[in-house]
């Protein structure tokens, strides 16, 4: 269920229209944590279809399959249980790792011209560090729809 | 040349960006400035701030005290500054409080990218939404709704959201929002309803006051002005509603939409641009007079400047008198004809303005810059041609024909990007 707005968001406003949505923009979310995925997907679903990969190998398969339809990729910074963490996968996706340093399952990935958002539950990472590695934004889990949309809008406007 | 209201808005945006930056909301500050520049690329100070923010430098303190509250968010949404409003919510505690969060999430849904395989008109709608063209986006969606195949559900939801934000809420009454106690007069306070809730609500409020105070000439004149404006908005709505053709969301149509929403400053700016020698000039000037009455009253000045003027402006003739072709040609101003020549002495083809004196007869020199722009048009590079015209217009604001040409090119571009023409009906009939 899409969260319903139960009352006007600001003085003087009527209730917004409510309609179940479909066919929304596609986002890949890579995180092994079920709870985090559920919460994020729930928050984003009003405007985004969220597909999920749990680990690095699955993420690469999903990118190969859906890269032409994705509007953003959200990667957990730590990615426990994977060979690659979110930072290394970001660097690979941005073509910043020599082929010999890339595990076979992550080689020859299609070019990905969409924002990469690194997500974390920790306070110990800095936004600027993520940018250095080729990420476009660092966000706290669970990701809020308005934060993701603002980041994607900024990305689009910067490329105009 | 920038109008006072544009300059004030730019200052406001810059100050909010500085305030967000100082709070550590750097990404939101950058997004805010990018949104503002996408809406109006001529904001030099915003551009400087953006460059400073991207370079990691400080932006300095706001030039005035800025209240980062829901009122500002509300005002920005009503102006179609949706990206800026979202950045403000995301960059402050407003977006994490229950009320602000709901609002932020609705904007987050509205401004979300469209699916990669969305059709061209929906992609054009998205571009308009994130570049300050919310009302154009609304008309694009309305036009798309009438076409086959049916719109996807997410697009229908965005249409409903946009109607709700731009139209429905321009006319709702807020029970907690009484007349402004700081207004310079009772009439100004009552007329303030126009700004908050739109033209129709404002007319109803002033009508009530005029009935209560029949001897108040200012109230009567204000009501007369509102009557003219409401009639014009309704007439436009019927005209557009009856037309089966795609209508441009520019000029008077856009001005009347802004009027309906109670955005007097934006409406005045649009009307002023049409009030010179455009085919709609006479009508624009007439409407401008009436909007000017409202502006004076809001500032606490008398609605009637003198008896004669009052009689003249309240006994209104047909609003839709169009000048004849001869009249239009006679009005054409050749006194300030300029020729723009490339200056070989300057690097990178800079242009130099040469005044060639008062024009004779009806001959107007075609400038080399015009030719360059038209050459771009003939090559299909409409975007660049439009930019050339807008650049020229910024240098020579009196050349309204360049503004018109730029607008034409913009419409042409959008038509090309969406099948069957997409710049469409602007105003829904008023019930």
Task: Please name the defining characteristics of this protein.
heterodimer; A: 160 residues; alpha/beta; 5-stranded parallel beta sheet; 5 strands; 18% strand; B: 431 residues; 2% strand
Layout: helices, strands, pairs:
The complex is a heterodimer of chains A (160) and B (431).
Chain A: E1 25-30, H1 34-44, E2 48-53, H2 56-66, E3 70-76, H3 86-93, E4 116-120, H4 127-132, E5 137-140, H5 145-158
Parallel strand pairs in A: 1-2, 1-3, 3-4, 4-5
Chain B: H1 4-22, H2 26-39, H3 44-54, H4 70-78, H5 82-91, H6 98-110, H7 120-130, H8 134-145, H9 153-166, H10 186-197, H11 199-212, H12 217-242, H13 251-261, H14 264-274, H15 281-298, H16 307-314, H17 325-331, E1 338-342, E2 351-355, H18 368-378, H19 382-395, H20 400-417
Antiparallel strand pairs in B: 1-2
Helix pairs in contact in B: 1-2, 1-3, 2-3, 2-5, 4-5, 5-6, 7-8, 8-9, 10-11, 11-12, 12-13, 12-15, 13-14, 14-15, 18-19, 19-20
Overall spatial form of chain A: globular
Class of secondary structure makeup of chain B: mainly alpha
In CATH, the architecture of chain A is: 3-Layer(aba) Sandwich
Q: Give unreliable regions of chain B as ranges.
A: 170-178, 307-367, 418-431
Most extensive interface between two protein chains, with residue counts: A-B, 44 and 56 residues
In terms of DSSP E residues, the strand content of chain A is: 15-25%
The CATH C-level name of chain A is Alpha Beta
Pick out the low-confidence regions of chain A: 1-6
Oligomer: heterodimer
Instruction: Using the alpha-carbon principal axes, give the shape of chain B.
Output: globular
The CATH superfamily label of chain A reads: Response regulator
User: How much β-strand is present in the residues of chain B?
Assistant: under 5%
Ends distance of chain A: 35 Å
What is the helix fraction of residues of chain B, given as a range?
A: 55-70%
- CATH topology name of chain A, in short, is Rossmann fold
Trace the largest sheet of chain B across and list its strands.
1-2
Encode the helix/strand succession of chain A as letters. EHEHEHEHEH
Average pLDDT score of chain A: 87
